[in-house]
Amino acid sequence: MTETTENLHVMNRAALTRRLLAALRNREAVIGGIGNSNWDLWAADRTRGENFYMLGSMGLAAPIAMGVAIAQPRRRVFALEGDGSLLMQLGCLSTIAAQRVRNLCVIVWDNGIYQITGGQETPAHAAGTDIVAIARASGIASAAWAADEAEFDALVARALSTDGPHLIGVKIDAEPGREQTDRDPIRFRESFMRAMAEPV
Amino acid sequence: MTSPAEPARPWHAILRQAFKDHGVRLVPYVPDNVLRPLIEGIHADPFFTAFACAREEEAIGIATGATMAGMRGAVLMQTSGFATLPNVLASLVVACQVPVVMVVSERGTMGEFNPGQAIVCRTMRPILDSLGVEHHTLTRLDEAAFVADRTIRQAFATRWPACLILSPLLTGGRK
Q: CB–CB of B133/B97 below 8 Å?
């Protein structure tokens, strides 16, 4: 587990999303944040009913995942959120910490830009803001940067086997999502609800 | 019918019972002075999981996730908090047809002293109407149980969000 942002490898969101899904064995829920986060989730496995893809409502991946986690304490739940999205809803980190949502893991893909709108720098990047440090200061003790792919795998394994809430920060490159989701929110909600009705 | 020996339940007990009748167990909220007795009653009742959120959008997200995972939710807020919600209502609960129930304590009318509240209050019903979200304003204690029960029932039956607006006529409003 890496405490600081020095010596972090810049990784690839699509590749790590595939690594995450490969580690899931027990119908874990995965909430994909808007844009590239959910496009790479879709590309990694569009047949997976436990994936939920957001259309808009930027910043709500972690709150939606928190709701799923509270409703189903036995299921592990992941939120995949961009750094710019999380910046819109930083207060949710305190809410997650306050409720001690032990089966929740928030993964933050941090490339320091608003990639989808043309790659503009985020104010957090300009200021040198450390998102993992914010999470820790918000009360999420199990918050760490993943220095490389092996550490990412180890942190995911920890999120699957120990009490959270967990947050994993990942420095990623600027590669856009390769495949866009269908824009079919009612189908996504229905298939997600059907999957959530299956026991863990 | 309420007999003279049985004093009428207050509005907050009526709402709490309507939540229970429809299995609404999760109540994320942003605090409000008028909502205090409802929030306190919900916290005191082990049937519910209730907690404060930093922002109304977040509370809608949490209730949406829980509802999709089988735990029904209602979000409590004040008028000005509702005004922060159009984007997430449009792109999440309405687009995905998730029956999240909203309860808004109405400020900005009936003797409001704060011009900001008065102006933002005028945006609430047009936003709900433009999103096609059914809303009912509770003004009378004798109608409150019926309106709350039927509004929540319809939200879940039709998989569509709904909003109950608590008028100062019902709650007494902010003193």
A: no
Kindly state whether B99 is in contact with chain A, defined as any CB-CB distance less than 8 angstroms.
no
Please give the average per-residue pLDDT across A88-114, as a whole number.
98
Contact A189 B68 (CB under 8 A): yes
CB contact under 8 A, B55 and A89: yes
pLDDT tens digits for chain B (175 residues)? 555 666 789 999 999 999 999 999 999 999 999 999 999 999 999 999 999 999 999 999 999 999 999 999 999 999 999 999 999 999 999 999 999 999 999 999 998 899 999 999 999 999 999 999 999 999 999 999 999 999 999 999 999 999 999 999 999 987 6
| From B53, B73, B98, residue closest to A95, measured CB to CB | B53
**Across the interface, do A185 and B96 touch by the CB < 8 Å criterion?**
yes
Does B57 contact A at CB distance below 8 Å? yes
Instruction: Check B92 against A55: CB less than 8 A apart.
Output: yes
3-state per-residue secondary structure call for chain A: CECCCCCCCCECHHHHHHHHHHHCCCCCEEEECCCHHHHHHHHHCCCCCCEEECCCCCCCHHHHHHHHHHHCCCCCEEEEEEHHHHHCCCHHHHHHHHCCCCCEEEEEEECCEEHHHCCEECHHHHHCCCHHHHHHHCCCCEEEECCCHHHHHHHHHHHHHCCCCEEEEEEECCCCCCCCCCCCHHHHHHHHHHHHCCCC
A71, A94, A95: residue with CB nearest B71? A71
